[in-house]
Every structure is written in C-alpha cells, then in structure tokens.
Amino acid sequence: MGVEALPGDSSAEGPIIELSKDLKLSVSERLIKRGLAVLGMRGSGKSYTCGVIAEELARVGQPFVVIDLMGEYYTLRERFPVLIVGLESTGYTDLSGLKPEHAEPLIRFVVENGVSLVLDLSQGTMAERVEFLADFLEAFYKVEEELRRPYVLIVDEAHRIAPEKGLPRLERISKSLKRAYYWLYEIAATGRHIGMGLVIAVRRPAEISKSILAQAEVKIVHKLVDPTDLKKLHEEGLPSELDDEVRSLEPGEAVVLGLGEPFITKVKERSCTHGGEAPLIKPVASPDLEKTIRALAKILGLKSEEERLPVPSPKAEGPRAPEEQPRPARELVLPEFDVQSFDYPPDVVANYLVRMMVYGHLGLFVPRSDQQLAFETCLVPDAPSALKALARRLSEEGWSIRGIGEEGERILLASLKEVVVGMAVAEAEGQGVLALVLSSPLPTSLDKALSRLRILMADTCPSTGKAQR
Ligand SMILES: Nc1ncnc2c1ncn2[C@@H]1O[C@H](COP(=O)(O)OP(=O)(O)OP(=O)(O)O)[C@@H](O)[C@H]1O
Ligand SMILES: [Mg+2]
After folding, report:
1. Residue 325 pLDDT grade (very low, low, confident, very high; cuts 50, 70, 90)
2. Do the strands 465-466 and 411-416 form a parallel or antiparallel pair, or are they unpaired?
3. What integer pLDDT is reported at residue 443 of this predicted model?
4. Is residue 451 part of a domain?
5. Which of 17-26, 100-109, 205-214 shows the lowest mean pLDDT across its residues?
6. Which residues pair with 404 in a beta bridge?
7. Rounded to the nearest whole angstrom, what is the distance from the C-alpha of residue 91 to the centroid of ligand 1?
8. Across-strand partners of 421?
9. Minimum-distance ligand to the CA of 38?
C-alpha cells in the first residue's frame, strides 16, 4: 500500500520535508496552508514524529515554534541552533523566568529574527504555564498578522490545551485555558492566511476539540486501540478495514490520512536523541545564537543562564563532536508541591499514590510497554521536605530531576540512564506519605536502583516507617 511521490507535493514550490521514504510534505502546502495532526496512544511515537518534523524544518530552513509541555525537545540543540526558553530554569534553557508580560516581546523578537524556538513549559505551576501559553499564542497570532512571516507552530500534547470535553479545572486555570484554546483554534482555522502553519500531536482523537482536529487535513495516525477513537477516525477518512492495522502498529509506524489513498509508513529515525530523559550528547548551535540570546535577554530584561547549553564558537559549522567536559552540577530547582491531605489511613494513601502514578501518569515517564516496575512507600514526618531531601541526594548522585503532572498531583521524576523513578507525596491522617515507582527495561538495574533508593530514603528521612500495604 505504498504511495508514489505525492502529486501535490513533488511539484509544490518551496521546501519539502521528508518524514519517511514515502511521506514527503511540502511545507507551504501541507503545513502552512493546511495543517497536520499526529495521533496515537501513549508511546506510539507522536513526540518522536514531531521531533522528526522539527528536525526536517530546521534542515530546510523553515523557522518553527514548539510548545513543549513535557520538556522533551531541547535535544534538538544537538544539531540545530534553536532557542530554548522556559518559565523556570531546567538546566538546558537559554533564558528562563518568563512571565506573561514577556510573551509578546519574545515572539516578536523570534519572528522578526526568523529564529526557531522551543517554548519549554515543563516547569511552573499549571496555572502559570497555561497563563503564559494563552498570552503567547495570542501574541504569536497578532505578530504574524502584522509581519506575515511563514512559521510552523508545533503543539505537542495539544489535547491538554484544547480538550474536547471540559475537564474539571481550577477556576484560575480554566480561564486561561479557554483563552489558550481560543487562540489555538484561531491559528488552526485562520492562521494559514497570515503564514502560520500548525502541527498538533494528540493522544486520542476523541479527546481533542473536534473543531481543531477538523482543520488538520493530513493525519499521521500511530497506534490506537480504543474503539471510540477508531470510530472518530472513520469520520476522518480511515477505512474500517484498516482498524486492525492501526491497532497493531509498532512505535513510529503510522497510517497516513489525507493524502489520497490511506497508506502505512514508518517515520524515519531522528537525527537528535529523542526524549526528555536523554542526555544532550552533541550540543551545537549557530555562531549567531550567542548574540541572539544576549539580545533577547536584554529585550526581556532577563539574565541569560550562566550554565546553559554550550553555544559553539564562531568557527563551528553544523554538527560537531561533543566536547569532553562534564557538565557542572547545577543547583537543583524543585517545583512547589501542593500536598494533598487525605482522611484515610497512610497505607491506603500510599497505595493510592502508587496507583495514581502507575495508572494515571505512568505513560508520562514510561512510554514503553517492556518496562519492569517496582515500588516503595514510606511514612515520613514531613512529606515535601523528605521528597526534596531525597531529590537533592539523587541529583548529587547524577540523577536528573524534573517535575511532571498537573497542579495538585505533581510527580517528581528522577532518571539515570534507563531507570526512571516517579516520586509523589501526600498527607494521611497527619502523617507524611512518600511513594516511589521505579521503572526500567532491565531487571538488574531496577534492583540496583531500588536498593540504592532504600538506602537514601533511610538516610534522608531517618524517622521513616514503612507504609504497609
Ligand atoms: N519513528 C520511530 N523510530 C524509532 N523509534 C520510535 C519511533 N517513534 C517512536 N519510537 C520509540 O517509541 C518511544 C515512544 O515514542 P514517543 O515518545 O514519541 O511517544 P508518544 O506517542 O509521544 O507518547 P506520549 O503520549 O506518552 O507522549 C520512543 O522513545 C522511541 O523509542
Ligand atoms: Mg509524547
């Protein structure tokens, strides 16, 4: 079921990006004039595909902006001079400390200078992230209305910004979320007239606003199993005979809709490392990037990070070998936790925390199904300080730490090589509860990490007790 060079695209003017041997898309025809959606369940390859799209855009010189809610796109810097800015410093942001008032000058500078931007919204409270995003999308639209420079906006996890059904939200969040949604819709529906292309990645077609999804003419459908989702896609041109194929796609494989007959393809490999856990092995940037960062820092009144990703010397050209310098340890900045209090016995709450991580959020940090899991729970006098102490110790031992999850149910994520640990806290009948879920594809490294964590937990929270299950 292969496809020949796509008629609309091979003859189209301007750059063509190549996602696989048979999936070549004209930037202006497919991304700017029409729009693209990448769909698929957790771990099916959406972010990976978006990563390939970003790399291809960088390769052909088409500027883009990535809305990165998970902190996964900084690895683009291994090969491309993208600017990375965030609400809080992540250790790889060029600039951080963004407040809503920075949104307009930031995007104006980016568009005026044709810079590609990763907007890292993996840090900060949910309210801060959504507020900034709403202002940013509005400003992006308005600046484009004025300047009309072709730009591609890539929104990963778009269902979190434009859900089909209203999810229960704090009032403060829901107001800005509505604004972010409004501007995303505006970009999807009318952005093409002002040069804005849109790529959205969405977990489930049933979860994303129908009116936004409908704007994306081409759909790259990775693995989906839920019958409701498949049914939605039948309305979008997926023949029901392909349901079984869609259910059994491997990561990276996809059915492509909207380019004539549906066909199956495998998205090519990324040229940069994929994922937020991955170390940045070959930091590279353009000779201009240093200057760009300094200029932007001045405009925004922010300090550029002292220990940000290395910016290459003016001699550097394209990808280079890594410099053999260990990255200096940086001070660990931890998010504030809203510790939930429960009127249930600690063992019940500990159980709940583990289940919440395994069933609710596991896909966020364990995208593959071949992972081994273990968990550990304990009682502590003060849960947030125990968690912070543990995170600091892990960080000193070389683990990288970041926060994920929505406000009120935050999880700290510690990762070292292939091991990823989710850590959550709560209060139960006045007692602090700390729960850890460990995952690794290798049983031996899982066991090793578990024993190390037990030692650290005993060390950092001396008066701990076991939360019996
Ligand atoms: N085209 C591909 N080639 C090779 N491996 C891939 C490809 N796409 C995905 N993978 C593998 O699948 C894993 C999960 O992919 P990815 O992170 O893109 O999932 P996702 O759909 O974004 O999941 P989530 O909804 O949890 O964010 C990747 O870490 C990678 O190992
Ligand atoms: Mg993803």
Report:
1. very low
2. unpaired
3. 80
4. yes
5. 205-214
6. 411
7. 23
8. 414, 438
9. 1
Least confident of 31-35, 246-250, 367-371, 428-432: 367-371
pLDDT of residue 97: 94
Interval between CA 253 and ligand 1 midpoint (Å): 10
- Same domain flag for 172 and 64: yes
Q: Which amino acid is at 190?
A: T
Please give the residue range of the domain that contains residue 69: 7-300
Residue from 19, 47, 264 to probe ligand 1 pocket by mutation (most atoms less than 8 Å from CB): 47
The SS3 assignment for 453 reads: helix
Q: Which of 118-122, 265-269, 290-294, 462-466 has the lowest mean pLDDT?
A: 462-466
- Cα four-point dihedral sign 353, 120, 218, 266: negative
Nearest CA to ligand 1 atom 24: 42
- Ligand 1 centroid to 368 CA: how many Å? 8
* Dihedral angle computed from the Cα positions of residues 304, 296, 320 and 122, in that order, rounded to the nearest 10 degrees: 70
Q: Is the CB of residue 43 below 6 angstroms from any atom belonging to ligand 1?
A: yes
| Residues lying with their CB under 5 A of ligand 2, a single-atom ion | 47
**Domain annotation covers residue 448:** yes
Pair 191, 141 in one domain:
yes
Q: Is residue 359 part of a domain?
A: yes
With a cut of 60, say whether residue 322 has pLDDT above it.
no
Ligand 1: residue whose CA is nearest its atom 16: 45
What rounded mean pLDDT belongs to the chain? 83
Specify the number of domains making up the chain.
Answer: 2
| Matching residue, tokens 């189209």 | 12
Q: Could you tell me the distance, in angstroms and rounded to a whole number, from the CA of residue 43 to the centre of ligand 2?
A: 7
